[in-house]
Every structure is written in structure tokens, then in C-alpha cells.
Design goal:
By secondary structure, the chain is an alpha/beta fold. Helices cover 42% and strands 14% of the residues. It binds glutamine. The site of glutamine has 7 residues, from α1.
Length: 390
């Protein structure tokens, strides 16, 4: 038999998706892969119902249905405080996953270096490998999640082509401050690199923190490739609707990559999601408020269970420190035990770090309040079960 491509040798199966599968097998509460167990807004689902009979059911324009792009441009122009042209500055993709991959493929030649803050969302490792890029990691120091500007500058001096920036950040919940973004932006300009952002949690930020779009900083629109999605904002992770916002010269290349990768995001779903893009600000305020409640419920449950964790400033994840309680060699074994014996699924933290870090697991709390309360009850028995050697 001929050999298969070696390109994929550098990474394994997604640990996040693997944990979901094991959670399903044992009927555990799945706080591993981050997606809601509640319905999207009724406006979107009833629009989808209408579209199922009225259409469209055929291809849309490859870089996105015109009305979808027009409404997205209006929404993002207001939030990002800039003028986004729906024809020149947007590509609609199959989730932010494709957006990030298309951005990387548009920017990187084989061997190009990209800077990634660690801990990082596991896809970026795979994105780098598939686009032929080599990641250079810059540490976000736990627990305060600060980074050393000198370390970032050293990384850029190695000839990097781009910085990948997940903000608000998965898995740490860090929201980069204006001062931090300013440092990153000044260095990006000094070393003439792109910043590829993943901003899928842009509307899930807890007071007093505020999301600032990197593209909105002075002189940054030209070199920022902003990737985001509708998945988390409208609780439609399965619709796979994402997008890239960037200057025209970048978008022209992204359009080509996207066209040959996927042709386009699902046409009926783009049309149904327009109902969300036209929501007023109250929707986004309420979304943040709902997640604030979920965060309180879940973090209180973790505290009651005697666990130590990072309090997220944004997004819907928390890293829990298991160093003192893990009787197993690895965080993966701990997570398997947690699914089987406690009935709650988490992601082993090691899949988010470039160094060997084995002391964290990641929970998400994008679940109904009753699901989180039930998860809390189960986690309350965790220490007893560990003591009993179960
Ligand atoms: N972003 C989500 C997470 O980190 C879902 C990832 C995925 O499987 N697409 O869990």
C-alpha cells in the first residue's frame, strides 16, 4: 500500500472531541467540549423552519450570502468601531475553525514561524502543522496570565510571520487588556507581522473586563486578520458559521483558500442566522449576564467541592488545579476516572500547553443552570471518592 501523508504525523486526534465521545459512552455530564445544552434564540430556529420550505437550498456566493455579509458588516462595524465593507472585508466560513485555518494558509509559507501564546486552544497546533508553519510559544504565566513583552519580542526576532491571539482566551478565560494589546500591536508593527485573532468569545466577557478588538487599535486594521463565529454568540455551534474580517488584499487571498477548501458555509443556515445578526445590543448584554450567572453557579460548586481554579474574565472555561488530588500519573487518566466514577467530563489540561504540564483539567460551563447544579452535586463527592480509592 502507498504511504499516507506524513503531514498529519505531528498531531493526534483532538483530545477535546475524544473526551466528548467518552462522556457519551458513560452518559456523563459533558463539561469537556465547549457547547451549550440549551436552545438557540427562537428567532433563529423559527427562521430556520421557514427557510426549510422557502429555501435557499443551493450554493450561495462562495464568500458568503450577500445579505448575511451586509448584516454582519453592520453588526461588526458597530462593535469593532470601524467601517467594514461587506464585499471587500468579509469571508464567511464553516466556523471559526475554518476561518483560522484559511487565515493561516493565506499567510504562511512552509517553514514560516507563528507566535502562539501558551496555554492555547489545541486547534492552533494543528493549524500550524497543516499550513506548514512552525509555532514559537510565548508563555501566559499562571495564575495571573501575564506575559513577558521581552519574551514576545524575542519570539518575533526569530522571524515570525504572524501572532495568533485568542481573546477572550480559551482555555484560560483571559481577556487581554488595552495595555497588553498595545504592546502586542506595537511589536507586530515593529517586526511587520500579521495578528490572526480568534475572537469567538467576543460577547462573553465578565464585568469589569471589556473585549477590545485588536483590529481597532491604531494602525492595526491593516495587519489584523480577525476570525470569529456565530457559534457561541447565538448558541449554534453545530451550524458551523464563522467568518474572517480583514483588509481587502488579505481577504482576496482568504476567499481563494476558502473557495477551494469548502466552496461555502451552508446557505440555509446563513439565511436563518441573519435573524441573530440584526438583534439589538440588549441581546448581547443579556448573553453576558446569563453567562455571568452560570459562572457564579459553577465556580461556587467548584469551591464547595474543595477545588482550586482560575476565575475566567471571559469565555466559558475554567482551569482546575488537580496537582494535589490526582492519584494517577496523567491528567488524561484523571479525566477518564472523573467520567466513569463521578459522571462529569473535563478536558485534560495538557492538551493546551506546549510544555509538559500535567496539573490542570478544563471544564466549560455553557450549560443550563440545572445541568451545572447537577454537575456540582456530582463534583461535591469527588474528594470522598478519591479518598475511598474509587
Ligand atoms: N471551542 C470548543 C472547545 O474548546 C469546541 C471545540 C471543538 O470541538 N470545535 O471545547
Amino acid at each position: 500500500m502507498p504511504a499516507l501523508s506524513k503531514r498529519l504525523d505531528g498531531f493526534g486526534e483532538s483530545v477535546i472531541r475524544q473526551m466528548t465521545r467518552i462522556a457519551l459512552q458513560y452518559n456523563a455530564i459533558n463539561l469537556s467540549q465547549g457547547f451549550p445544552d440549551f436552545d438557540p434564540p427562537i428567532e433563529l430556529t423559527s427562521s430556520l423552519k421557514n427557510i426549510s420550505s422557502a429555501g435557499p437550498h443551493q450554493y450561495e456566493i462562495t464568500w458568503g450570502a450577500p445579505l448575511f455579509r451586509q448584516k454582519l458588516a453592520q453588526k461588526q462595524s458597530a462593535f469593532m468601531n470601524m467601517k467594514i465593507n461587506p464585499d471587500e472585508n468579509i469571508v464567511v466560513t464553516c466556523g471559526s475553525t475554518e476561518a483560522m485555518m484559511a487565515a493561516m494558509l493565506s499567510v504562511c509559507e512552509a517553514g514560516d514561524k507563528v507566535v502562539v501564546f501558551s496555554p492555547f486552544y489545541e486547534n492552533y497546533g494543528a493549524d500550524a502543522i497543516l499550513s506548514g508553519a512552525v509555532p514559537i510559544f510565548v508563555e501566559l504565566k499562571l495564575p495571573d496570565l501575564s506575559f513577558d513583552p521581552a519574551e514576545l519580542e524575542d519570539a518575533l526576532k526569530q522571524g515570525a510571520k504572524a501572532i495568533i491571539l485568542c481573546n477572550p482566551s480559551n482555555p484560560t478565560g483571559k481577556v487581554f487588556s488595552y495595555d497588553e494589546l498595545k504592546i502586542i500591536s506595537e511589536l507586530a508593527k515593529k517586526y511587520d507581522v500579521f495578528v490572526i485573532t480568534d475572537e469567538v468569545y467576543e460577547h462573553i466577557v465578565y464585568k469589569p473586563y471589556k473585549h477590545i478588538y485588536t483590529a481597532s487599535l491604531e494602525g492595526m486594521f491593516e495587519r489584523t486578520i480577525s476570525c470569529s463565529s456565530l457559534s457561541k454568540t447565538y448558541s449554534i455551534t453545530g451550524w458551523r458559521l464563522g467568518y474572517i474580517i480583514a483588509p481587502k488584499n488579505v481577504i482576496d487571498v482568504c476567499k481563494k483558500v476558502h473557495d477551494f477548501l469548502t466552496v461555502g458555509a451552508a446557505a440555509p443556515l446563513q439565511h436563518a442566522a441573519i435573524a441573530g445578526l440584526i438583534f439589538d445590543n440588549a441581546y448581547y448584554d443579556n448573553l453576558a449576564l446569563q453567562y455571568e450567572r452560570k459562572r457564579t453557579i459553577f465556580l461556587n460548586a467548584l469551591t464547595d467541592a474543595g477545588l482550586t481554579f482560575l476565575k475566567p474574565q471571559g469565555a466559558y472555561y475554567t482551569l482546575v488545579d488537580i496537582e494535589k488530588i490526582n492519584p494517577y500519573k496523567t491528567d488524561l487518566e484523571f479525566c477518564k476516572w472523573l467520567i466513569k466514577e463521578v459522571g462529569v467530563a473535563a478536558v485534560p489540561g495538557s492538551s493546551f500547553f506546549h510544555k509538559k504540564v500535567n496539573k490542570y483539567i478544563r471544564f466549560h460551563f455553557a450549560k443550563k443552570e440545572e445541568t451545572l447544579i447537577e454537575a456540582g452535586k456530582r463534583l461535591a463527592g469527588l474528594r470522598e471518592k478519591l479518598k475511598a480509592g474509587k
